[in-house]
Amino acid sequence: MEKKFGSRKEAVKHSFTVDRVHVFEDGSVTFNMIVDNYVRVYGLRIYDGKDGKPFISFPSRKGKDDKYWNHVYCPLSSEDVEEIAKQVEERMA
Fold first, then answer.
1. pLDDT of amino acid 72
2. Under CATH, which number does the domain 2-92 receive?
3. pTM, whole model, 2 decimals?
4. In 3D, which of 81, 35, 32, 39 has the Cα closest to residue 59?
5. For the chain, which residues make up each domain, given as ranges?
6. Which segments of the chain have a pLDDT < 50?
7. Looking at residue 9, what is its pLDDT?
8. 14-23, long-range: CB within 8 Å, 24+ apart, which pairs?
């Protein structure tokens, strides 16, 4: 993630720790994650995305317009997604 300071951009590195993993009978996976050792996010899902790469879905709620809206979000780089997916797999074993 990049943080803008005026016209200057600086990369911001976050830490992610997978806290709990649950595998449902249909094979879907949910997990909880701690961001920067401070914020705990419940109910994330992980899917196989395009080209077999993992995709992480943040918790969302259905709005009055029948669309689903994330109620928490954190930008993730492809490296972050790979690290989180690795942690999820380790917890599943």
1. 85
2. 3.30.1120.40
3. 0.79
4. 32
5. 2-92
6. none
7. 58
8. 14/74, 14/80, 16/80, 16/83, 16/84, 16/87, 17/87, 18/84, 18/87, 18/88, 18/90, 18/91, 20/91, 21/88, 21/91, 21/92, 23/92
